[in-house]
Amino acid sequence: MLEGKTYYLRTFGCQMNVNDSEHIASLLLAEGARPASQVEDSDFILVNTCAVREKSVEKFFSYLGRLKESKEKRGSLLVCLGCVAQIYREELLRKFPYLDLIVGTNQYSAIPFFLRNLLEEKRVQTGRKKGWLELPIAREARESQVSAYVTIMEGCNNFCSFCVVPFARGREKYRPLSSILKEVKELADCGCLEVQLLGQNVNSYRDPESGAGLKELLAEIAEVPGIEWIRFLTSHPKNFSPELIRAMVSSRKICHQLHLPLQSGSNRILKKMNRGYSREDYLNKIDLLRSLMPDISLSTDIIVGFPTETEEDFAMTMELLEKVRFSNVFSFRYSPRPLTAASKIKDDVPDQTKIDRLIRLQAKQKDIQLELNRNYLMKTIKVLCLGPSKKGNLFAGRSEWFQVVNFSSPNNVSLGLVQVKITGCGPYSLHGELSG
Ligand code: SAH
Ligand code: SF4
Fold first, then answer.
1. Which ligand 1 atom is nearest residue 158's CA?
2. Domains of the chain (ranges plus CATH)?
3. Which residue, of 43, 309, 401, 403, has the fewest CB within 10 Å?
């Protein structure tokens, strides 16, 4: 047992990491450990890490450097978890000898055991398990009571040439549909209204027991009373089928919102990235989505400065941005990642060119977002209130289309679905007042 011990858990990276941290917090709470509000007060400092881009690794390394003093002052034990732990173990041991434990992405269930044994010797735990490993989440470990992440698969078999995920997370492993449904029902019983199904490549989900796919899974979840909004991410344009698009329309509980990473608008670059689709394929899928759900909001990921990317290639990405008019774009400068195929090609686009392309892309996208958000002015829309806003006396939530909505109300607003009249907007959020 870890009775009486305190822990501080910091998470870097994607929604999958946030969900993993919820699992880990659950395990620690079940052992009697308690969360500490700051590093200085904790017996265990745990950092869940992200390796997807060079910048995320650098950010973690510099955080680790800053933790040394707090760790030594109290004699806390320092634990590195997640994707960096999985693929940088030797470098971590060499560069940060004061790290007490390194736990990769497949060993989380044993964390309490590792912590109990920590005083005896240093450990690196980065082995892999076959199949799905069930890790329940306690209610108090959830980030939100009304909106929950539910992991449905882990890992990826796609091997996009730039991406470290298949190495950091391993091959695809699918969670049984029965166990996903059980979690969703329990969440609904506790008042949860929104579920976001998570996986690196959710379109290839297959129930290991029945072979049912994402389409069937969505249909089953839509039947769960109490669940109002269903989202799923991340989809891959190659596997995102017309059947799935039609399934999205079959229940109004499935939000008209989709994250569909494009990466580049140039067919030549898409090929080098091993993405398995062309810009035309991508646009055809967007057309079908919009013909069935005219109000759908689409977001994407773009990489600029992939090796050999020319100004013409980049212009094609910019052109697609204009054509599709995404409601949100996550854009990144290419950085070579260990073990990937692209890391063997010369990273020949100068840093300054990458920065320049990123700035141009983000400026264009900012204008598009502002224009799109203006369409909601004076409309009354449904918002999932997630709690008080960090700014002023406002409340914060999200719309069905995944915009951040900050709104005022003369009275307190409980967590849940409310109607908000939109009175203002910026490129990154909507503002309004509680209606009715
Ligand atoms: N499974 C998702 C997300 C993978 S990682 C997908 O299939 O798209 C999230 C995003 O990080 C990617 O979509 C990509 O845009 C970006 N990314 C991944 N590797 C990168 C690299 N080496 N350099 C820059 N950006 C990268
Ligand atoms: Fe990485 Fe490609 Fe898999 Fe996404 S689909 S996780 S980008 S390899």
1. 7
2. 6-125 (3.40.50.12160), 139-374 (3.80.30.20), 380-434 (2.40.50.140)
3. 43
